[in-house]
């Protein structure tokens, strides 16, 4: 039975329960406090605690009253730590169409309103006003992905580094264990916080009259200033190539960017965590439960989703253009040992409401466990943001055997009835035609193991699109490989009499995607027997190639102009093609496809159409988009007439 003192303290009463008269570090988080290794604020708190520090956490402090939550625990000896939470608060608070969400998954009962917009900046600014002499260190995904000049979709503005808005003293980007260890070591040696300027994976603002810290192991690179980016979108775009490449190098350069009367300094990242280091992080004494203060407020949805899941690795070498995982966790995989994972399984099975079923054994992608370069020297020199696009690197070991062995080891546990794979599986890695250096028998063995023992009716994969042009920009393989995977899936399904469903995920309104691409997507997936459910509109989030293109109109690597659907009408229309099977969309589809002479697509999507008339001549995408514009104008005109009546 857990005691209240088993959690990090959140109140003065809980601080006194531990016999403490003062605190070394006080953390502020936009999430409710869940003491679990999947929740970043808890991990940071436990890491600091493991260094012998007295740590407290203030989850979801109120910013709508006298701000007593920010002062109630007093002044920490070392610093305040601030994070917006496990998700960027703007993603947590708003949908892709910028509508306020009805629920916050990281709050008890899913209640909204407990996390302010731009939470990291809000919390940090308040703390600097209340405690001007106490250092503030910011981290987490919001700070990490906003560490440099970035486009903010929700305000539709180009924002400077979050260090400028938050007034914080230091920023830790990426996964925080390694830089925190060095920061704490220096502070415990008596080094002033203001002198900590050469720790890897940190960023700070340096006034123009301050001396640049020296490090003989680093070379420096300067990107366009914030002021230049505000004036020139193309130069803003050109910055991103440098930022992305330096974020994913093993031996990276230090980055400088001028902003007003200061210089942003971004120190190179640490090398990927070793197995011993990542095991140590997961082996900390988590209760694996929400703080008891929430017992009467209702369940926390994000916790309920992962309470019986196991995270086996960090990082993703996919480098997808729309995804922030590699920007935050890195492209190199940090895998836990099998012993550490099995030790966590032992903890899960002892939870009082555990019924024998693990909801997930996975990570950012389910099937990248233990995968790394065969020759380390090749990886040391690599600048590519993806190890599998446009083709799988010849140096990447994509063996699925360690993962298959892990699944079998977990399933041998006497209290495990079944372990599921809830994380998305990279289906392209399982296709021999794409993964050419892998052993096809091994790939089939993994696929069969997953389908036979680890799926509950549905297997989720993410081809994302059907257009090769869009997929190339996404850094995803051709849709032809999804067809190949489906053939293997169907073969195993039939052979084992499993009756499983394959559920593909798709994105609309991604840069380079036009309405005709969405019509083709609808027709091709319908031909394959899919009635799509798992779909989403592209949401521009900081630190991705796709977001840079969306805002600037240029590809950051080629600096060639590229189109994006930006207006609400354009985005809504692209999304509408996902739902060709809804009756209210069929007349609209008929109008669009009739205008552009696409009899082939019309007959596939609305085969009962009697309104179709053959229209000879070559039709281009511009003609297609003109037809959509015409249909929209016609609809508005009709609506206006109705209003006048």
Describe this structure in words.
Among the domains are: 199 residues, Response regulator (Rossmann fold, 3-Layer(aba) Sandwich), CATH 3.40.50; 137 residues, Transcription Regulator spoIIAA (2-Layer Sandwich), CATH 3.30.750.210. It is of the alpha/beta class and 645 residues long. The chain is built from 24 helices and 24 strands. It is globular. β6 and β7 form a beta hairpin.
Determine the strand fraction and express it as a percent band: 5-15%
β-strand number = 24
CATH topology of the domain at 4-202: Rossmann fold
Helix content: 25-40%
What's a quick, concise take on this entry?
The protein has about 650 residues and is of the alpha/beta class. Among the domains are: about 5-200, Rossmann fold; about 310-420 and about 430-450, Transcription Regulator spoIIAA (2-Layer Sandwich), CATH 3.30.750.
Write the layout of secondary structure elements.
Blueprint: H1 12-17, E1 25-29, E2 34-35, H2 40-50, E3 55-59, E4 79-83, H3 89-93, H4 119-130, E5 136-139, H5 140-145, E6 150-152, E7 157-159, H6 162-166, E8 170-172, H7 177-188, E9 202-207, E10 220-222, H8 226-231, H9 233-247, E11 254-259, E12 262-266, H10 275-282, E13 289-290, H11 301-306, E14 309-311, E15 313-314, H12 325-329, E16 334-335, H13 338-349, E17 357-358, E18 360-362, E19 372-373, H14 376-381, E20 396-397, H15 401-411, E21 418-419, H16 440-453, E22 458-464, H17 468-474, H18 480-496, E23 501-508, H19 515-527, E24 535-537, H20 545-552, H21 568-576, H22 583-595, H23 599-605, H24 621-644
Helix pairs in contact: 2-7, 9-20, 16-18, 22-23, 22-24
